[in-house]
Records
---
Amino acid sequence: MALVSDEVKELALPSRRWTPFSGLPPVVVWAPAVLVACAVALPLLYLLIRTVGVGEELPDMLFRWRTARVLLRSAALVAGVTAGAVAIAVPLAWITVRTDVPLRRMWSVATVLPLVIPSYVAAFLAVVALGPKGMLQGLLEPLGVSRLPEIYGYPGAAITLALLTYPYVLLSVRSALVRLDPALEETSRSLGVSRWETFRRVVLPLLRPSIAGGALLVALYTLSDFGAVSILRYETFTWAIYIQYEGALDRTLAAALSLVLIAVALAILVGEGWVRGRAQYYRSTAGAVRPPAVVRLGRWKWPALAFLSIVVGVSVVLPMGVLGYWVARGIAAGEVLQFLWRDAMNSVYVSAAAALAAVAAALPVAGLVVRHQGRMSAVVEKVTYTGFALPGIVVALALVFFGIHYLTPLYQTVAMLMFAYVVLFLPTAVNTLRASLLQVSPSVEEAGRGLGKSPLGVMVTVTLPLLRPGLAAGAAMVFLLAMKELPATLILSPTGFSTLATSVWSATSEALFARAAVPALLLIMATAFPLIWLLRRGER
């Protein structure tokens, strides 16, 4: 076991030599990364402007029991959802990447599909299907079941959000497993170490940055979610902020609560950085890159299939079935259902543009964080993550403020809406690119420079092809999140510019559930097909 221990220790040692990103001069990496961070910090500047005139009243607003109670409730939800998402995603990633489970390609796509379901749709479907007096109880009433347990509150919100967010961890861990050097596991197995011990002592430590990065996105998403917590009646910071923005003429308290939300997000970022550490996770010895051996499950094939079926059934099949039931019920009642193709095209157009822009903005940030580790690069990274922790309404109102006062030509344009999506969802692209770049040895880039390639040539021909899985995964997640985003779309959309998300919201707000099911199904299909294409392209 000494050989395995030495190899793992070598991989876990802090890097003694970090080269510039693809040999580029430091200023070429720093300048765009800092520019991206400044652009993302605009909502933070807006919140500071809102709260600067409060004076002595600000501590009284923040340091009171109700604020502390909401903070504890939010922290409990973040902890529960993050733990649940990691517990679901890591086994799923290993089964779909490393084993001979039947229909592995199908499961690798189906397990990611919860990303396409908006949280407000999933929460409402959970209430309709599983809540008291819901569809499931109606089926069980002939068996004597008069009332199911309450789905409202913490249990319902935690389970719903965990089933929606585990793909963040799954995509990150799956990308890392694909690129992991199989020689370490083979060496451990050849020394008589069991497969489970090899996974626990060799593979799992090397997956730490991917797990931490995915868990970070889950935590920030949970912190900023409004749809699920409002429908399932679990009060968090986001819900309190929305109530203040909608019901109070003075938005100062809402801005102050948003600053507290950012402080919590920064605490999560610090914790994630501590868990991830400063180790290097790329191959440090010579050798050919090859795929890992497929693990034959044998008698464990059926438990693995059962696990996959339960996760996909609850998170994908059940919501789709309820939506289909609504559509069928509406048709049977004679309701005219319209297929909103124009709204679908608008959603795809602006979301695809935002995905490309977010990946382009994330590339210099990821390169700076990985290849130029230090306090300043850590600050840049944490600033880029603040937008993901803020509710969409806060980011949208911040851009409205700057659009009216300083950027009038961009106010109520598609460009501003796209920029809002980039601010909100940039961390998903940064996370996947950082995890991929951590596994690219700087010596590979140095070899390209030694063969006469220019720094730009090394980036185009060496680094970017190695980052292709991370680029595809990051673009896919930004696209999916932008397709589902509701508050920012409602506030920033140009006049007459409607999307599938706004159509779903307008129909459900009028209790037209059958009419809402059609754009909801279109939304799921419009995001599922590009997601499948991006995942397949990333694999190739």
---
Amino acid sequence: MITIQQIKIEMKIEKANQRLELADLLDSKEVLMKKAAKILGIKATDVSEVTILKHSLDARKKPQIFQVYTLGVTLQRKDLEERVVKRCKNNQIAVHNQKQYEFPSLGTTGLTQRPVIVGTGPAGLFCGYLLARHGYRPILLERGQDVDTRTKDVEAYWNGGSLNPESNVQFGEGGAGTFSDGKLNTLVKDKNGRNQEVLRIFVECGAPEHILYESKPHIGTDILKKVVVNMRNDILKNGGEVRFGAKVTGLEIRDGALCGVVVNDSELLLTTQAVLAIGHSARDTFTYLNQIRIPMEAKAFAVGMRVEHPQSLINECMYGSEHGNLLPAAPYKLTAQTSTGRGVYSFCMCPGGYIVNASSEAGQIAVNGMSYSDRGSGRANSAIIVQVTPEDYGVDGPLAGVAFQRRLEEKAYLIGKGHVPVQYYGDYKRDQISQNLVGSDSLQPDIKGNYAFANLRGLLPLSCEQALIEGMEQFDKTIKGFARENVLLAGIESRTSSPVRISRDDTLQCPMVRGLYPCGEGAGYAGGITSAAMDGIRVAEQIAMQGRPAAVTI
């Protein structure tokens, strides 16, 4: 197969009554074949097949908008491919040599027990999926509930019910990513094909095929819920086990090696291989690990506010006024370096999404963003966050960042009187409480969960507030209207990434406990769904290299 990069085709956008879907935008196979043949200097009839490897939109010359493709081109005669590439003398054209993912050869010894995976977020789920597919019959322990029960608990909380501390936006099947935008882009370099393997498995389990080639792939909460159930069923079909309401409350360690995990303070589950894929909201688990002297350290992360705009404002900036209402809801990515020395940037941007109450502890409020697959809410939101380091936490120790998060979330709870506190940006700058301006042109909150107008000043440390305002004003130069008076803020965005890193060595094991594998975002080794899933695959590989499945002889 031949790869052709940076193929640009101008879009011919017809007026329509509704926003176009991605499938409506893509050029036909016939058009792509003709374009590829022209670039390669061959006849269209010489092309057997074209495959979209990457796709994005380029609106830098709006109102002209271009589709940008990387295509995989298969010729009718395989022997012509190298000859055609050599003749073209174009660095955008090459023989396709993308590395296909391969699970490593299994170790020569046999494991004595089944591996245990603590947590079913992306890291734990993908680790369990790979191990189950290769005969290890893993046992997955999830403190929260299955996705259907969890959805009912979350919606009951959003509708004014009580918070379930073990079944919420943070805890349960699929992890925190289940109630998110399902964004799958990552900056992790992928020399071993793990990134593409994650996307392939998602598609195999029910995600749309376009995530394989879109530059900023996303699934959406509605589809992601079905995907994680299909992954669970595949684990069960291959001999694995998934337990819900199964909280790991202790570890059994002898002579520096793991020999078991304690579940719900009552059951000892024997194992010599356990994966700590606990997620960064498992604060009680971090406390326990610190008490038994598992090595860990506080790490930098970022905090800020969810900021909500009309999606039309973002679309018009990205696509232009002529096409803004016809193309898919546009994302943005913004960064600023402020005079305080703190970086400010957008995070977890949700086109056509919702702000959600993502709390997991009583007496505290944390927010996040999510969207469904259609990204059709008419609102755009993202976290605008400020970098913080251990020097900002006010206390020392591995859990200093956790204590810092809790203080912020407790403040948010008090400011909002138990609800998500919201404020218009103009009032935030003036340090005054916002009023609910019903009937005005101010953006009315569209939040999953109860909210209350409040004054968010004083919620963040003063230097962070100054940096946030400065960053917003800089972003307004890129997206006109980004920092207008009636933009909505909601607080507090405090769960951006883990404030803790659990130490591990080159074999991905805890240096003090053989057989214990800190993994994923909570352990400090990932920053999103895809990178966490890739880390789960890495840990599965390491377990496989330690030995063959229990009760299997070579």
---
Amino acid sequence: MAKKKKNSRKSGAGAKSYNTTPSSVSVVREAYRFMQKQVETRTFRGSAVKAGLDLDPVRVQRRVKATESCAKQVERRVLQQFPDMEDFFVTEDWARANSQPMPAYDAEEEMNTFSMGIAIWILDQLRDCDKLSHAMEWISADSQRLDNICAPAVWDPCHSEDMIFGMMDVIQSRNCDCVPNNRIRSSREEPTPQRIFMDLFTAENIHRQEVPSRERFEKILALIPEPSKEDAASAFTEKFWDWLDRYYYSRRIYALEEKQLDEDFRALREKEEKLVSTLEEGRQQGKRTPIDQIPMPTDFRGLPPIPLTNPLFRTHAESLRIAKELDDQQDALEKRSELLEDKVSDLWFFLRTQNGRTYEESVNTYGKEMADIWKDFAIEDPYKLSFGFLYLLDSGSDLPWLYFPGVNLFLWIAGSFPWARWKYEFEDDPVWSQGAGDAANTAQTALPKRIKQPDLENWYAMDYIPNDVASEFQERYNLAQIIYEITGGIMPRKPERYLTMLEELDYYGITGKKALHPLLYCMSILGEARHQSRHYCVSDNIPGVDDRDTKDTAEELQAVISALRKENEQLRGSLHHTSRELRDTKKKQEAANMKASLERQELADLRELVFHQQEGVYQDEVPDKNITFPCHTTRRIVVFGGHDSWAREIKPKLPDVRFVDRTVLPNANMIRNAEVVWVQTNALSHAYYYKIIEEVRKHNIPVRYFSYASAVKCAEQIVEMDRT
């Protein structure tokens, strides 16, 4: 007879049950209470950590409200699209997904500078409706204030860096001088640095105050036509539901497996009940004697023994065989259940990193059906969608407070910005960092044989004749003249400067004349413009009012004003240039310090690993009583190495950590989005190890080493690191 094991269908907030139908309100609130308790008692300590996960009381209250208000709509939407999920508890899954700890919006802002995309969209709209000059009154030009804006180095042909940074300042500080409501207790004051998006004032819906920061933000937004703002909000809403539909399309794959698993569990219980009934029937029909009584399995010690005279169970061995079969069936179902729970947990991690995955990698890891669901999901205009998110958030919409779809879509949008994958460094420009002489002759560098060097157009050949002019008045034009006539800009004189970058384009699979020519000229124009020579020195010959006896004319006064304005612009440019150099130097110093810190930590880990191996404590398996598993982590952690048995044991203990199978070659997509990489050096080849180290060095990602062979102790190492 099967042993009475704990049912693998979890109890509590993580439960999956087909026997009860609790209200959506109770399900949602219980899920958040469960997760807060986990954060409070098992994984993290301190209000600052809870606030960093947006699981503090104020934000949780807003998140619960949003989750509850949309629960019925989500359930109707899912059941309409997928009738075969009628037995699936949509609301329970919805509550669990939204209450899961995950890096919140403001944590992603620090990595991908989402607010820069919003700023650029606003500036584009103001320019398009000819309101940019009206907005200048509220866009700060204070270099000291703008120096506090943290953003990657960008050069935008439409707006200067000062304009972009000034608009980012408007966005980031829009609620900075709001004041708490008198009813809000002091314990609700922000325990973490100033938020850009999910601040307490927005969470409490008291952010629309008559204070300077809000005034300038709202006046700038008022200059943008309402249809443009509503269009952006609608675009975000549409993309939000598109993402959520695809999630439930993916979740359906496992929901159907869960349904089948529950049916198998019920069938097994029916077999057990039938066996018990048969045993009872045999007991009642048989005659009991001291000699022919057979001891029952321990799980049935509550029942009397079975006599050998029972025709249904003639031998002791037959009873044990049936019990063993049922026991094996339950073991198999338990394993299926654990594997299925791992798949659901992995699905959440998969969705958070899907934007950077290739289709082939998704197929290999999650199967073709799952990969096909997300294959064509794309971000058409990240700038519009980024503003749509802010506009909905500021308007009090529930959508941004639904963290599971909201943060994931936020990651997709942020990951689509030009600066998301690689941070350009002015001094490390692959073309211009060679030096003036080398850069001028860069076209002489030989390209690999696989790359055919294209023939560049002659911008000055008179090959173009207008086709609507009488023949006697026709004139020939060259490409440079046509471009100037249309734009007023003149083409760079050395488009061949970027020929060597054809190899870089080939690295990304961009080949062929049609693809290469537009990109080559685009790089040439943007690169030359970014390195445009400028003269910030102030001329001594500033026109002024001379001593002539003639009366000053309006034209002369205007010339004086123009000269003074020019002088002011030159001074501001010189000041900004110096400030930017100081800021860049500071950033470089901070990056160097961070790199040194990471290397010191890595060296310490390696020393500890060698020490444990030499001293024979590598196998220490004494557990830490202060850590209970499974344990949730907040950082994006990727683990490489380790034997298969070790991986199977540690994976259920850390459901939020990604473990890379040692048979899968490491690549940039696995590592670049990680916050920490852990390495288990046993069962890891040198080539595999060096490939990992190459990628983490490239992306400045901390790498840590396990000091133990025990899966429990290794899991404790990760948890202790994650708590610091």
---
Amino acid sequence: MTTLLIHYMAPIMFASLVVVLLLGYPAAFSLAAVGLIYALLGIELGLFQPDFLQALPERIYGVMNNDVLLAIPFFTFMGLILERSGMAEDLLDTIGQLFGTVRGGLAYAVIFVGALLAATTGVVAASVISMGLISLPIMLRYGYDRRVATGVIAASGTLAQIIPPSLVLIVMADQLGRSVGDMYEGAFIPGIVLAGLYAVYVFFVTIFFPKAAPGLPVEAVGFREPNGNRGLTSLAILTAVSAVFAWFVMRNSETHGADFVVLTMFVGIVFAFVVAVINWVISHMTGFRLLSLMAQQVTFAMVPPLFLIFLVLGTIFIGLATPTEGGAMGATGALLLAFFKRRLTWNIVKQATEATAKLSSFVVFILLGARTFSLTFYGVDGHRWVEDLLISLPGGQIGFLIFVNTFVFFLAFFLDFFEIAFIVIPLLAGPAEKLGIDLIWFGVILGVNMQTSFMHPPFGFALFYLRSVAPKESYIDRVTGKRTDGVTTGQIYWGAIPFVAIQVIMVALVIFFPAMVMHYKGLGTGIDPNKVKIEIQLPDIGVPDIGPPPAIEPPKIQ
């Protein structure tokens, strides 16, 4: 037994941790306890050097001294303030009206608003709860299938997991030892593509099951002009003119990739906002309007989130701010937004601060436990065991990625993304780098994969968040006055399954089309440094001729 334990200490240690976690003990204390127990056992068996434990205080201090992790409380606080500022409610109402009688219009609006909230809050709980409270009653009122409605809301809320400024991307970058800014730029396009795949799924649902996602009835569509027109032509013209103006302004700029997209979007929305303000002033002074009510309402609803996106992501992408500084500016922007909407109260600030402190403490304690566990695991050469196991897999890089993603996918049934990021990711980084896999690409792949941890029945946190706000029993709708059936837990679980499949498809797309992520490397000069020849020429400074050295006579000895 002792011989078996000595030879297989690392896998036994990892298996023990999984068993302890499955028993329901808190992750932070489970990690630390398993690490210390096996450290003592390793010392007794001669596998672990006691000197390793002297490094533990330094590792703990390294966690507290990590500036990157400061971005987590900033983005969490920003998301919680925005949840209570009414921005999500304004967006859902406006975008839902924009789609009007189009089948699946409310579902498209939820996906669109989910992507915008993800790019401003970075917090899954805030997005899911906000849209669950606001949009689910409306979708049930107008006859949406409960599985479609709950699935769209939960999946759109989890976009905050992969679209920057995601908290998991911050943790992923820290664990992989890479720049958070690079991780954000790499994840930008996959996040947008994933939102597009959700919309494609809704489109197919409306084609094959039209009754599952009906459009709004005509009488429910507002923002009409006096002549009954909805004013969509005016909105389309404003959008086109703003896009052309932004392109002309930015066409000669030196920005590329995500930088160009964010800055162009910012220029376009500023132009549209200025036009909308001018229209509002003229209409109040003369009664004449340049824009329709719909165009003006959409512009005013879109400005706050897009401004925050630029304030956070734009400043990070163009190098004006670090992720921590961007998070601080985003938190300040969220407070200002709530203030101007007259919804900033002491109670809201207190609740957001307490929730931020709880989440931040949760993250730090898990990280401290993970550092204790990893110290022992590395001390018994567990990292070499993992490295030898993974590098020897058939199929090279693709075989490694398929195995790792399958393993993480099933692990996500039982662990949340923080636990996976702190326990598993550090063990995978070394083998991935030895196989020549770009760690930013690797991190984005795993980020999309771990997004499924929020959607897995029966333990997905997004499903729990939605269950907490979805009506369980039948109720009287406050608008129609009709009795509406509640939503069962089974309907929430069945609604999540198609979106889990879409997320798995997205993982495959990122693996086989790495350019979606690797564009972050093309933001420089585009010159291959390996092909650059450097020649150094020293100027001829003309050394003066000072003649032969003077003769030195030897001393005379008397």
